[in-house]
Design goal:
9-stranded antiparallel beta sheet; single chain; Beta-galactosidase, Chain A, domain 5; 5-stranded antiparallel beta sheet; about 290 residues; globular
Length: about 290
């Protein structure tokens, strides 16, 4: 099932499976901003990463002296959500824990994904409620893929990412097993710009920690269309594209893949979020399209 919201500027479409955003069309310029999900390269468009982000060491974590397994990025992206609320310019999708999920992830929860639009901006809010009796541990991240090139006639290499502040930060390499290596590599050296080319992602995603910027824009040197992506409250940022594919993912994360030397204890996982029984946690990212 697919669901839409719209206003005078934007038309947004989301699938019930994974509550996955798959289309953003600007009503004035008729541009589609989302990657089409070609399975030859990568069949998804904007999966939610929950209850982990990235890979676990040996796909396994330890909690209360028990061993559990989860595949990369968790299970929410592959499960059909319930539509809890649907209005003209907003909708809410709900996923709840089940007997099956509790075998792999022993925490009762409710996960809501809110989509809403105001003027030229899409707002996406993740809301996690701990419905169990004990403290809950989780990670959560976004993975939207934006079409590059945006406009016919422009090239992938005409596009660039522009951060809101000048940055000095490193890229954290990813191992062949999908884990975070111990030694970072220089990337942004007193600049706010990453020029896009398809070799950037030969060694998997660009993983950034401790950015000063809370906004990054996708722009092009040959036209004025693009987007401004705001990610306040997300301590990590991933940037990725599949090999030779015409998109770039801008991925704000609350959580990160295990490091190569992690002890696999869930409670000691880098970036892990914690909420007590009955508590609700939320984060929102925003994208302004132009």
């Amino acid at each position: 099932m697919e669901y839409s919201i719209y206003n005078n500027h934007l038309n947004i479409k989301v699938k019930a499976k994974g509550a996955e955003l798959f289309s953003v069309v600007h009503q004035h310029n008729n541009l589609e901003y989302m990657w089409g999900g070609d399975p030859e390269f990568w069949g998804k468009t904007s999966p939610v990463l929950f209850p982990i982000v990235g890979a676990l060491k040996d796909n396994t974590y330890l909690f209360n002296n028990q061993k559990y397994s989860l595949s990369r990025h968790g299970f929410a992206r592959d499960v059909t959500f319930q539509v809890e609320n649907h209005r003209e310019d907003s909708m809410v999708f709900l996923l709840t824990s089940t007997a099956s999920s509790l075998q792999h992830y022993p925490f009762p929860f409710e996960l809501r994904i809110h989509y809403s639009i105001t003027n030229h901006t899409l707002h996406v809010t993740y809301e996690v409620k701990n419905t169990g009796d004990d403290q809950m541990y989780f990670s959560l991240g976004a993975h939207p893929a934006f079409k590059v090139p945006l406009v016919s006639g422009s090239a992938y290499t005409d596009h660039y990412l522009e951060f809101s502040k000048t940055e000095i930060c490193s890229r954290w390499p990813i191992s062949n097993e999908g884990l975070i290596n111990k030694d970072p590599e220089p990337l942004l050296q007193n600049t706010n710009k990453i020029s896009l080319n398809k070799n950037l992602f030969d060694n998997d995603a660009i993983v950034l920690k401790n950015l000063q910027s809370r906004k990054v824009s996708l722009k092009c040197s040959t036209h004025h269309h693009g987007l401004e992506f705001s990610f306040e409250g997300f301590p990590f940022l991933g940037i990725w594209a599949a090999k030779n594919a015409d998109f770039v993912c801008i991925e704000p994360w609350c959580g990160i893949a295990d490091s190569v030397d992690h002890n696999q204890q869930l409670t000691a996982k880098e970036g892990i979020e914690r909420i007590s029984s009955g508590e609700t946690w939320s984060r929102t990212w925003h994208v302004k399209f132009f």
